[in-house]
Design a protein that fits this description.
By secondary structure, this protein is of the alpha/beta class. 42% of the residues lie in helices and 20% in strands. It is built from 14 helices and 18 strands. It has a 7-stranded parallel beta sheet with strand order 12-9-13-8-7-14-15, with helices on both faces. Strands 5-4-3-6 form a 4-stranded parallel beta sheet, with helices on both faces. It has a 3-stranded antiparallel beta sheet with strand order 1-2-18, with no helix packed on it. Helix 2 crosses helix 7 and helix 5 packs parallel to helix 6. The radius of gyration is 24 Å and the shape is globular.
């Protein structure tokens, strides 16, 4: 890969983008929307080939779901771009401004990062999402997806580039997808000091850890999602069971799906049978101590003893807590208090998304204040941790770090600021 030449071209085009008006960028993105629509069948056929190859290799159902595109997901990509088009252009926004006693005026304004690199797995929609957010915020973008989604990613890039080329203000070379699947390419990207301004990993824990450990350039760290649901002793238990079902089952391969359910001891005997009934043998429950006894008895009573050939309720090991299953598996544990729940979560989570189901306002606020995570929910599914659900249209990923960006990253995540200082001959 000729990374230096690629990055030089991306840098040149990021300068062009940084000087464009919101209208110019929006017209280009509208053209991209039209071209994705025009090439819908081509994109879906390319994705079909990727999915077929993944199935032959034995990829899990949850990961296949992340890889697969359909008309609904294409509609979602187009809708997301249109949402970003409608958003206020962040470039040039004045964050703060003041005048010094000596008459010098200082303004802090928002500017693009420059050249961003996204290293991601499986999800081909990230190709469009990352491009759109980078483009609207005035950045060029280097994309390095996984081999499993290469045909899909190339098809989406083709539509993007052709859409940009059809618009007079479009900048087709503000996006470059790395076609090679050589792992050395990733190391080159992460060592591209002076050529790439920021890198973002989006995928599983192994990818994220590798990027963080090897990067010589700045990284916005997205995190694996070891998310918890805590059922407080004041909770509406029926509501808690429904939230648990949605947060675990709707899309188990997503980073905002729950991996552990904690239940207050005062409601465990009432809630756990409700949970077993709500999940109806669709999830393998790895339960600790007395939670195992309650759930096992309930599963036996209802004749739900297996999930895909495995026991539906098994005894949990210590390794099951703090683990991202990304599958139809969930750990369950009984705790004695909200304080124990908070302490347990902060020891085992990845600072992504956490939830309490409660009717106690004090407990709700205590949980939100003391749980260390990017997104902390009260009486709502963690599945809402998503740029689209937050009104961003799309996202670059979920940042679990505490510097620069945290939580779902939208249009402003690829911006920084600079100070503009005006004087009239002042000297120090």
């Amino acid at each position: 890969m000729e990374l230096k030449a690629i990055c030089q071209k991306l840098r040149e085009n990021s300068v062009i983008l940084s000087n464009q008006t919101a209208r110019q960028k929006n017209l280009a993105l509208e053209s991209v929307c039209g071209e994705i629509e025009n090439q819908r069948s081509f994109i879906l056929e390319a994705n079909k080939a990727d999915v077929s190859a993944a199935e032959k290799k034995g990829m899990s159902k949850a990961l296949i779901e992340r890889l697969a595109l359909d008309d609904r997901k294409i509609d979602g990509i187009i809708s997301g771009i249109k949402t970003v088009i409608a958003q206020t252009d962040p470039i040039g926004e004045e964050i703060a401004g003041w005048k010094m006693p000596n008459g010098v005026t200082i303004r802090q304004v928002r500017v693009p990062m420059g050249v961003a690199a996204i290293i991601y797995e499986s999800r081909p929609n990230v190709t469009a999402d990352a491009f759109c957010l980078a483009y609207k915020s005035g950045n060029s973008i280097l994309l390095r997806g996984s081999s499993s989604a290469l045909k899909s990613n190339l098809a989406i890039q083709k539509a993007i580039k052709e859409g940009l080329s059809k618009c007079p203000s479009g900048v087709p070379d503000a996006i470059h997808l790395v076609e090679s699947t050589d792992h050395e390419d990733v190391e080159q990207i992460l060592s591209a000091v002076g050529m790439i301004d920021v890198a973002l990993p989006r995928g599983g824990a192994n990818l994220i850890n590798m990027v963080v450990e090897k990067a010589k350039i700045p990284v916005i760290q997205t995190g694996a999602g070891v998310c918890h649901l805590f059922v407080d002793d004041s909770a509406d238990l029926e509501k808690a069971a429904v939230i648990a079902e949605n947060a675990k089952i709707q899309r188990p391969g997503a980073c905002n799906a729950i991996e552990t359910i904690l239940v207050h001891k005062n409601v465990a005997e009432q809630f756990l049978p409700l949970l077993e009934k709500q999940l109806a043998g669709r999830v393998e429950l790895r339960a600790a101590d007395s939670a195992y006894t309650i759930l096992k008895a309930e599963a036996e009573k209802n004749g739900r003893l297996t999930v895909d050939g495995h026991a539906s309720v098994v005894k949990a090991t210590e390794e099951d807590f703090g683990y991202e299953f990304l599958s139809f598996i969930c750990a369950v544990k009984i705790v004695s208090s909200i304080d124990e729940a908070i302490s347990f979560i902060n020891r085992h989570n990845t600072k992504h998304s956490e939830c309490i189901v409660t009717n106690n306002r004090d407990n709700a606020r205590k949980f939100q204040q003391n749980v260390d995570a990017a997104c902390v929910y009260v009486n709502a599914s963690t599945r809402f941790t998503d740029g689209g659900e937050f009104g961003f249209g799309m996202e670059l990923g979920i940042s679990t770090q505490k510097l620069h960006a945290r939580g779902p990253m939208g249009i402003k995540a690829l911006t920084t600021t600079k100070y503009l200082i005006d004087g009239d001959g002042q000297i120090r």
